[in-house]
Design a protein that fits this description.
This protein is α/β, with parallel strands linked by helices. The protein is built from eight helices and 15 strands.
């Protein structure tokens, strides 16, 4: 489970963000001040930080600087709408992204997923049930024959091979596809993409062995796999 470090002094925003991220299967540690943030960084390791720029005893810039010195993880700033100067300053000191308040929950989740994906060591190849994926070349083959996937189908496949053994909820898949398409993907559209992908990579789409349905929850990879 990925650990999110939330630095936000607004109690209502922090509470709502914690609920949102926990629902997306993230482990959230929340602090409200710069002092608390520096103490938490000294005692814990995280995968990504969400940092409010305005803090009661300092600012998010100092927290970001400390993060980059101590841990190799993405930092996303939470900033007031239209505060361009703060955004530029944040990016110049090493922040990876920023989200303006008020933000759309799905957009924030998508940006977090994108930042974590970029920070993750690249997977070069993956094999499962006769399916070979060469991520460095963006090439997919089934039993030695190339499989042509659309951009969203390929992104969907990457979500599965980057999370082998994990159950992936439909909400998480919707967020991943929204990030790839730049627009909202509906629940019905997700069902269509799963069906199309199975038709291209499964021996028998009616009895899938690669992408398995977990009733009431989502999907997961099935079968044995080899990854490099």
């Amino acid at each position: 489970m990925k650990r999110i470090f939330l630095v936000e002094d607004d109690k209502k925003i922090a509470r709502n963000l914690t609920r949102l991220l926990c629902a997306q299967e993230y482990d959230v540690t929340h602090v409200a001040t710069q002092t608390e943030a520096l103490a938490a960084l000294a005692a814990n390791r995280f995968d990504l930080a969400l940092v409010d720029i305005s803090l009661p005893d300092g600012n998010g810039f100092a927290v970001c600087t400390e993060i980059k010195q101590r841990q190799d993880m993405p930092v996303i700033f939470l900033t007031a709408s239209g505060d361009e100067a703060s955004v530029v300053t944040g990016l110049n000191i090493g922040a990876d992204d920023y989200v303006t308040k008020p933000f759309r929950p799905r957009e924030l989740v998508a940006r977090i997923a994108a930042a974590l994906r970029k920070a993750k060591p690249a997977l070069s190849s993956f094999e499962i049930c006769g399916l070979h994926v060469d991520t460095s070349a963006g090439l997919v083959k089934k039993d030695g024959r190339e499989v042509l996937l659309s951009a969203l189908e390929y992104r969907l496949l990457l979500v599965f091979i980057n999370n082998p053994g994990n159950i992936i909820t439909r909400d998480r898949l919707l967020n991943e596809l929204w990030d790839a398409a730049g627009e909202f993907v509906t629940d019905n559209t997700l069902t269509v993409y799963i069906k199309r992908l199975r038709e291209k990579i499964e021996d028998n789409p009616a009895n899938p062995q690669i992408i398995l349905t977990v009733r009431g929850t989502g999907y997961r990879l099935g079968g044995s796999y080899v990854m490099e």
